[in-house]
Amino acid sequence: MLLYRSAAWFAKGLREYTKSGYESASKDFVPGDLEVQVPGRSFLVTGGNSGIGRATVIEIAKRGGTVHLVCRDQNRAEGARGEIIRESGNRNIFLHIVDLSDPKAIWKFVENFKQEHTLHVLINNAGCMVNKRELTEDGLEKNFATNTLGVYVLTTALIPVLEKEHDPRVITVSSGGMLVQKLNTNDLQSERTAFSGTMVYAQNKRQQVVLTEHWARAHPAIHFSCMHPGWADTPGVRLSMPGFHASMGDRLRSAAQGADTVLWLALAPAATAQPSGLFFQDRKPVPTHLPLARTSSSPAEEEKLIEILEELAQRFK
Q: What InterPro entries does the entry give (predicted)?
């Protein structure tokens, strides 16, 4: 079944996830959707110093938004902040250094953040694909700690902050790779099977889709969405998937093309006309399962994921 899923997904990707797929889809975009200005609105973008995150931050900054960059590496983040200010002409760009694989650090960050700042839009962009099983200081598998638990803790902690504001939104940058994975709550730490960073990443991205659907039901005052940016030429792809990057070459999307739907979900009034909790690709909601792929999960399995994450979140609070 995994072979079928992977083959069907790759064929779909060649049609839709490439630069030509974006160019085809963009013919249906409404040109005025992103002709907006957002002074007075506050955005928090994780991993905003490079790739899709950086492209997202620049466009928000150009439109007058206040942007909080949450990054891990101080030197690289400070350099990116300076470049973003120069390119956008917007000095309301704030930097926060947080390791998103460390739930204790995330709780501490939010506790301080909410004392000083408001927040209208959270963009969960940061992620990692570690190709060898690696544990954090807390004994958590690194991909799961960053991509799933970190997103859960950050979003959960910021929901009360978001709920105070007008038109609050949460966008999570997932991946079409999640289409090859069925939710598996029995091995969240990747202890029981041969380790594949690519498959663990895809499983984490499936978990993000389940979380988005859960949050949308639990918090109707906030518009939640997740999305696939397509196959984009970013530092993360070059580092984590060098073979794929080399084979795809100039068929990959630019970082700006990958960021387009993130921006649309974060900025466009049209985005919140769509129901909360959906998965988007090129400004349109798309199915979260491939035909005949048997990747659907039961409500009990999804609730188990939430229970495990909540227990871990509270343990490290």
A: NAD(P)-bd_dom_sf, SDR_fam, SDR_member_12
3-state secondary structure 56-105: HHHHHHHCCCEEEEEECCHHHHHHHHHHHHHHHCCCCEEEEECCCCCHHH
Residue 245 burial (10 A CB sphere; 0-12, 13-18, 19+): middle
User: What are the residue numbers of the active site?
Assistant: 201
For the chain, report the end-to-end CA distance as a whole number of angstroms.
39
How many CB atoms sit inside 10 A of residue 236's CB? Answer: 18
pTM: 0.97
What is the rounded CA–CA span in Å between residue 187 and residue 248?
32
CA dihedral 23, 29, 32, 36 (to 10 degrees): -80
d(CA 100, CA 103): 7
> How far does CA 141 lie from the centroid of its chain?
19
Cβ partners under 8 Å of residue 284, min gap 6:
25, 28
Q: Count the helices and strands in the chain (H runs, E runs).
A: 12, 8
204 and 100 Cβ atoms separated by less than 8 Å: no
Q: Given a cut of 90, is residue 103 above it in pLDDT?
A: yes
Residue 66 has φ and ψ, to the nearest 5°, of -85, 130
Spatial separation of the C-alpha atoms in residues 230 and 24, rounded to whole Å: 13
Cβ atoms of 304 and 297 closer than 8 Å: no
Cross-strand pairs, 224: 170
Q: How far is CA 198 from the centre of its chain?
A: 16
C-alpha dist (Å) from residue 106 to 44, 151, 297, 305: 13, 10, 29, 20
Kindly report which listed range (17-26, 188-197, 271-280) carries the lowest average pLDDT score.
188-197
Q: Which stretch of DSSP H or E encloses residue 141?
A: none
Residue 70 contacts residue 98 (beta carbons within 8 Å): yes
pLDDT digits (tens, 9 = 90+) for 107-161: 999 999 999 999 999 999 999 999 999 999 999 999 999 999 999 999 999 999 9
